[in-house]
User: What shape does this take?
Amino acid sequence: MDSPLPDVRPPKDSAVARAQRGDLEAFEELYREHAGRVFALCVRMSGERGRAEELLQDVFIRVWERLDSFRGEASFGSWLHRLAVNVVLTAARTTRRREARVAPVEDLVAVEARETAWRSGAHVGDPGTRLDLERAIAALPPGARAAFVLHDVEGYSHVEIARMTGLAEGTIRAQLHRARKLLMEALG
Amino acid sequence: MTTEHISFERMSDMADGLVGAADAVAVERHLSECAACRETYARLHRLLDRAASLPSRVEPPANAWASVRSRVAARPSGGVRTQRWLRAESWFARAAAAVLLVAGSSALTVLVLRSREAAPDTVTRAPAESAVAIPAAVRAVDDSYAGVVEELTTTLHAQRGSLAPSTIATIERTLRIIDEAIAEARRALAADPGNAALLDVLSANYEQKVQLLRRASELPART
Assistant: This one.
């Protein structure tokens, strides 16, 4: 049984609350904290750096416009990330018919070179291997790429992805199978 | 030993824990006996491990914040959603996006422009949905768009006579699709009221509707 949502708005002096009141400095704090994760999502979902930069801007414009709707039911990071996914998916729908994407390898090389912050230092791994995977993800067809990034990189469930994309769970699974098969073929 | 290899799709589902217990036992038995499938399954797991260990952050260019700041500085934080429509994108592109947004969804149900009287209901209430079932957050989104949608719908209705029939048909078709998307989002929110992503989808659908109505209502003056 659903119960009324509790009012768990962020504390008045938090960066979120100050940004909700229109404080741009507070919004910059939020940007600095979350831009890296959002940009990683944008790069991987779009497959190209230039587009990812546009998407990053669109995401934070949208965050700014929607700040009033954040009530603290989830963490701000989770709320923002879901909003980012939605912005990226909506943009992808708009451009899907317009162009067939080819992996811009040089863009991803540049992205990799700029990586400076990692959430966990325990997963450094071999840079060459990571770059191969990033390139292969960028070369995937858009639908398969979205399913793979959201599920296998970002950790969303099939159900969550189905809700976010508006597609059936079976379609998400099929796209995921396709992405994994293509990646295994590409990576040898 | 089972001679037939396991399909990749079944392995992929197995890796995600989506096969039943009995099927999982059968898959594992086959894997223990078939070197080829075992190798494929191991490669799949290596791929998934690598994907999960990709860096969660990629730092954007240093000047990206300046671009964001310049854009947000001209807009109020939250609330005043109607100002978003200053973006210079063609309304035809918006309409196409709206169509894609709900491609494959259920049958279309509402004609917004068919009658002036019907418009307010299509704006604020999904079919077969009682007011009691509407979560407060959804009502807030509904309310924030109701006024501007009603105003634009009335304006557009008054201008119908100056629009080409093919244009009216395009507008009506797109509005039907957007309204169905709104209704679907509201139904989903009724079942999952705390889902922020769904709330965002609902707002995005309303935004597309406002954009379309605004552009369409400006058409006579521009041609």
User: Anything to note?
Assistant: The longest helix of chain B spans residues 165-191. DSSP finds nine helices and no strands in chain B. Residues 79-94, 100-132 of chain B have pLDDT under 50 and may be disordered. Chain B touches chain A through 65 residues (CB under 8 Å).
